[in-house]
TrEMBL record:
Domain of life: Eukaryota
Protein name per the record: Uncharacterized protein
Protein species of origin: Avena sativa
Source species taxonomy: Eukaryota, Viridiplantae, Streptophyta, Embryophyta, Tracheophyta
Length: 526
């Protein structure tokens, strides 16, 4: 990893207007974005409650009608005249740092905004059927009172089912259940030609079922998903263990938690580690616990989700001072423990929002909607964050050829490493080469068979993108289901910078030409 430690600082940077806009952005956030965010949260809550009051039969009927509208809209497209197909969702609504510039090219929009309902929670089959715009907060609000939950619950409430399936979703329970997409039982898709299909791992559309994850919605429109449920308990028994030493020592502690070498130890339901410096971190292991256990004399219950409570990462940090301790957290509050502070990003947006006075007076308004932060930042602030800020998640595995701790004969244990914040050199007023930092990281991941999540900013060329990701199955699905020339390729959807209509069309035409050539060769062989 020596190449990742080479200096990326290029001397002192000049103070510009955008620096002041970023520094004092908190004024706009407090007086405008927080109140508007609260109104949006309230409206969403009321909409969810209204939907829950409807019968499952009525919700399903509305769903089928909305699917018909999507099919009708797709069939209105003129391939020779209209651009490539994409959703009508505004670019800034997506939760992620990546610029959604592909919509600046000519495109044909299909409105999916109605697909935001929980259609069914089947406690007998242990499956929840939901539409793609249902978010994590909706699901846990509906399932936790039933002592049920989806197996992988992302920490941020605003993350949607569609984004986690078409993109990437991981949590502290993924060492047991895999990625969010691994917990999906079936997907309902509207294909490029208007057909509606249900894909599972073992039906005639199994190739599509396995092709959808990481495809970024480029194989068709996801209109519903059936997701595996698990039985849970009311509380999470969470153990906070401080870890000191080198990064290798911290990583080993994590490996020991994920796959204990001691046969007497049971793998925890949830595992998470926060690294606060090169030599200090805190490992957290959580197991579901009953209300009876949590309320026993001597046990501590911590309602971390209450608006006035310390931000979770700061609470975790106290373990470095206090030593190991155990407490019980209501399960739903534990699931969304990082929502109020957006992990630790809110410290940059509202530097004093973690203070006691703010938490008591205005903490109930937190967090500001990520979509509103993106919608109001403007081009200058957006570019500033891309150049001087880091938000990256990556999947990494061991580098040894032999089986590692946590691996099995048929699967390899990957770990999500998340890096979020502003580099220290930026605070010191030094120039940071963000593009070079991302490029070096991506090259390191390619060499070590890791993966970069697609919600983040990328510097990958098309060649390097397909060195990181295997295109074979994806391209097979594109050709079989007729998405070439209708939906944009996942590379061009993820690519940094603006995508001209000409650039995208030429890329799709090249794929169509290659497909036609392959078909002719197959006919000649026959």
């Amino acid at each position: 990893m020596a190449e990742l430690q080479e200096p990326l600082v290029r001397g002192k940077r000049k103070t510009r207007l955008v620096d002041f806009l970023v520094q004092f952005r908190w004024i706009f956030v407090i007086f405008f974005l927080l109140p508007i965010s609260a109104l949006i949260y309230l409206n969403t809550y009321l909409s969810v409650m209204w939907s829950a009051m409807k019968s499952e039969k009525k919700r399903q009927k509305e769903h089928e009608e909305n699917v018909r509208k999507v099919v009708k809209r797709l069939k209105q497209r003129n391939p020779k005249k209209d651009g490539l197909v994409c959703t009508a969702r505004k670019p800034w609504i997506a939760v992620g740092m990546r610029n959604v510039d592909y919509k600046r090219a000519r495109h044909f929009e299909v409105d999916l905004s109605a697909f935001r309902n929980i259609l069914e929670i089947d406690a007998d089959r242990m499956v929840a059927k939901v539409e793609p715009l249902v978010n994590m907060g909706q699901i846990t609000r509906a399932t936790c009172p039933m002592n049920l939950s989806i197996a992988v619950v992302s920490e941020l409430e605003d993350l949607t089912v569609g984004g986690l399936i078409n993109g990437y979703g991981i949590e502290g329970s993924s060492h047991i259940y895999g990625l969010f997409s691994d917990t999906v039982v079936a997907v309902e898709m509207v294909l490029a030609d208007g057909r509606v299909v249900r894909a599972t791992k073992d039906n005639e559309h199994s190739d599509l079922f396995y092709g959808v994850p990481w495809s970024q919605g480029t194989l068709g429109f996801l209109v519903s998903a059936e997701i595996k449920l698990i039985r849970i308990k009311e509380y999470m028994r969470l153990t906070y263990t401080p870890v000191r030493g080198s990064l290798k020592d911290i990583a080993q502690d994590y490996a020991d938690a994920v796959a204990p070498t001691d046969p007497s130890k049971v793998t925890a339901d949830f595992i998470e580690g926060l690294v606060f410096s090169e030599t200090e971190g805190v490992m957290m292991t959580g197991s579901y616990a009953s209300g009876e256990e949590a309320r026993r004399k001597g046990n501590k219950i911590n309602n971390v989700g209450w608006w006035f409570k310390p931000w979770f990462y700061q609470h975790v940090q106290t373990a470095l001072r206090k030593g190991e301790f155990v407490e019980y957290i209501p399960t739903r509050q534990y699931y969304h423990r990082h929502t109020r502070s957006l992990f630790w990003e809110c410290k940059l947006i509202l530097p004093f929002a973690d203070q006691l006075w703010f938490r008591y007076l205005l903490g109930w308004l937190m967090p500001p909607k990520v979509s509103l932060l993106k919608a109001t930042q403007g081009e200058a602030i957006r570019n500033y964050y891309h150049d001087n800020h880091v938000i990256q998640d990556m999947l990494v595995a061991g580098f040894e050829l032999n089986q590692r701790q946590g691996d099995t004969r048929y699967a390899q244990m990957f770990t999500d490493v998340g890096v979020y914040y502003t580099p220290a050199c930026v605070f010191r007023g030094e120039e940071f080469d963000g593009a070079l930092a991302v490029h070096r990281l991506e090259q390191w991941l390619i060499r070590n068979h890791g993966y970069e999540t697609q919600y983040a900013v990328t510097e990958l060329s098309e060649k390097d993108f397909w060195r990181m990701f295997d295109a074979s199955h994806y391209e097979l699905c594109r050709r079989k289901y007729g998405t070439v020339g209708t939906f944009m390729s996942v590379y061009y959807k993820s690519k940094k910078g603006r995508k001209s209509d000409r650039e995208v069309r030429e890329a799709e035409a090249a794929v169509l030409l290659e497909t036609a050539g392959n078909a002719e060769e197959e006919e000649e062989e026959d």
